[in-house]
Design brief:
single chain, about 425 residues, alpha/beta, FAD/NAD(P)-binding domain, 5-stranded parallel beta sheet, 4-stranded parallel beta sheet, 24 strands, about 25% strand, binds flavin-adenine dinucleotide, flavoprotein, NADH dehydrogenase (quinone) (non-electrogenic) activity, EC 1.6.5.9, oxidoreductase
């Protein structure tokens, strides 16, 4: 797998990247056609555009619209090998990565870009009942539960049961929870009205449950208020200071009250991948791997970390947020820095440039925070759409998604309303 040395030339440095998400892919692309041999290891065969996963969960897009085989993305770089395997540990002393099939993969430099996962705060048994939105499987599961609940409600004679089935509880008032709550409300409203003869839109409920006293806390106050008011105007019920105490097959218990629901979704808090445990070092807040200003993992030679799993600080000593733009910029920087390092040159330190934080709330409604100025409403929504199409992995996906968005905007129809009879509900 490593570059061979048949002509007695010194072997090329071997860089191993774990994780082909935003950070890992950006790093690999930067190292493409370089003098390094690169191996990209991921447990999945595809890269996933997570910011649009909520649209798969609400039947607006299909999984293949936002996912791309890693081999296809990196196929044009002859110096990059792709390995589909789960990494289980690292032998830092001998510079070897440990794979789940027992194989050891030697490296000269190792990049950890393993992302993050939802945090169930000690209640991992809730995951099956209230899936998060991290993978295609979870998005399909949520879509399945939403659509099956509509079908069951249509056939139910019991008004209480019908109302329960038509209730969705979204846990967590961050961007994912807000985006999902708005999209589920739109899905229910238009689908029920148009396609279900026995159901009434009055019975469709979406509850957004947040433990804190505000939603979208990463945004300025006036954008929080705008999002709050918009969601309420389209009929999303927002419960603040509402702590989830239990999740079971029938729904959720919040502050002692049981909310019966046909679908429960988890979007409350993230934690880093368990990569810190591979090195036996104490993780930082959120389980993240502490790195220095050149993204080197503290105390482990030749190991770097980027993206959601890394704890990097900005110039004021604050942790950089777990965002795609951070992971991408870090990946691009590290690719360049590693090339320089192996040429014996000293790279500059990493500095993050904020290109704006955004969340979409519904049709014609989004918010943008650029630091010095902000944007909300239809213009922000249009900009959000442009940015997300631009950020998709290639032209084919951009075209596919644009066509479907235009069609959906005009017809309000959601084409991916598929129930898979083999997917366990
Ligand atoms: C629903 C949702 C919406 C979001 N919306 C936005 C948004 O609008 N804007 C924004 O900036 N950010 C958004 N984010 C955050 C953004 O997606 C992440 O910050 C970004 O994906 C982090 O990139 P990464 O490279 O660190 O990790 P990821 O993109 O998560 O990639 C990690 C990769 O590592 C692989 N991996 C993990 N563990 C192992 C292992 N042990 N062995 C092998 N492979 C492994 C995974 O399979 C995955 O491919 C959103 C996230 C979610 C979940």
């Amino acid at each position: 797998m490593i570059d061979s040395d048949s002509n007695n030339r010194p072997a090329r440095p071997h860089i191993v990247i774990v994780g082909a998400g935003f950070g890992g892919l950006a790093c690999a692309r930067e190292l493409g056609r370089s003098d390094c041999a690169v191996t990209v290891v991921d447990r999945r065969n595809h890269n996933l555009f997570q910011p649009l996963l909520y649209q798969v969960a609400t039947a607006a897009l299909s999984p293949a619209d936002i996912a791309e085989p890693i081999r296809k993305t990196l196929g044009r770089y002859r110096n990059i090998h792709v390995v589909m395997a789960e990494v289980t540990g690292v032998d830092a002393a001998t510079h070897a990565l440990l794979l789940n099939d027992g194989e050891r993969l030697p490296y000269d430099a190792l990049v950890i870009a393993t992302g993050s996962d939802y945090n169930y705060f000690g209640h991992d048994e809730w995951r099956a009942l209230a899936p998060g939105l991290k993978t295609i499987h979870e998005a399909r599961l949520i879509r399945q539960r939403l659509l099956l609940a509509f079908e069951r409600a249509e056939r139910s004679d019991d008004s209480l049961e019908r109302r329960a089935l038509l209730t969705t509880v979204v846990i967590g008032g961050g961007p994912t929870g807000v985006e999902l709550a708005g999209a589920v409300r739109e899905l229910g409203h238009h689908t029920i009205k148009r396609d279900f003869r026995s159901l009434s839109v009055e019975d469709h409920r979406v509850l957004l449950v947040e433990a804190g006293n505000r939603i979208l806390t990463a945004f300025p106050d006036h954008l929080q208020r705008y999002a709050h008011d918009y969601l309420q105007a389209i009929g999303v019920e927002i419960r603040l200071n509402a702590r989830v105490e239990d999740v079971d097959r029938d729904g959720v218990t919040v502050n002692g009250e049981t909310l019966r629901a046909g679908c429960v979704v988890w979007g409350a808090g993230v934690k880093a991948s368990p990569a810190a445990s591979w090195f036996g070092i104490a993780p930082g807040p959120g389980g993240r791997l502490p790195v220095d200003d050149r993204l080197r993992v503290h105390g482990v030679e030749d190991v770097y970390a980027i993206g959601d799993t890394a704890l990097a600080l900005d110039s004021k000593g604050r942790p950089l947020p777990a965002l795609a733009q951070v992971a991408k910029q870090q990946g691009e920087y590290l690719g360049r820095a590693l090339k320089l390092t192996f040429q014996g040159r000293e790279p500059e330190t990493f500095s993050f440039r904020n290109r704006g934080n955004t969340a979409v709330i519904g049709r014609n409604a989004a918010i943008f925070d650029f630091g010095r100025w902000t944007l909300k409403g239809r213009l922000a929504w249009f900009l959000w759409a442009l940015v997300h199409v631009y950020l998709l992995i290639n032209f084919e996906k951009r075209l596919l998604v644009t066509i479907q968005w235009i069609s959906r905007y005009v017809t309000r129809q959601r084409g991916a309303r598929l129930i898979d009879e083999n997917l366990s509900p």
